[in-house]
Design a protein that fits this description.
Helices cover 39% and strands 20% of the residues. Strand 3 and strand 4 (81-86) form a beta hairpin. The chain is α+β, with helices and mostly antiparallel strands. It has 3 helices and 4 strands, in the order αβαβββα. It is elongated and about 70 Å long. Helix 2 (44-53) crosses helix 3.
């Protein structure tokens, strides 16, 4: 009986830990970090995605970092990076597809 209780407690602890781990990997928002011009001028499709498409999505933002290559970060509720993708070799459509594949939607049009 003591072994069963110990096993049950271990299972409950494992499930609680697994549940907490899953919550930490749930994507809540996305952020693109990049130099606002210098590197983007050589990547016209990525630049168009950042300045024209990204603002249309819910829970996304653009953070300007001087000299940084364009990177798309997927963040959890605690602002921890869950995933990151370099956008340097992506087309505009591939950038949009990546956001959509992670569950990001275009904002509702304001009435």
């Amino acid at each position: 009986m003591k072994i069963c209780a110990s096993l049950l407690i271990s299972c409950i602890a494992f499930l609680a830990l697994a549940n907490a781990e899953a919550a930490n990997t749930k994507i809540a928002r996305a952020r693109v970090e990049s130099c606002p011009s210098c590197k983007l001028n050589r990547l016209p499709e990525v630049k168009a995605f950042i300045y024209e498409d990204l603002p249309k999505y819910d829970n996304t933002e653009f953070k300007k970092i001087q000299g940084a290559p364009p990177v798309l970060l997927f963040l959890n509720d605690a602002d921890e990076i869950v995933e990151q993708h370099s956008l340097e070799k992506f087309s505009r459509q591939e950038c949009n597809n990546l956001l959509k594949s992670k569950g990001f939607n275009i904002k509702d049009k304001e009435l």
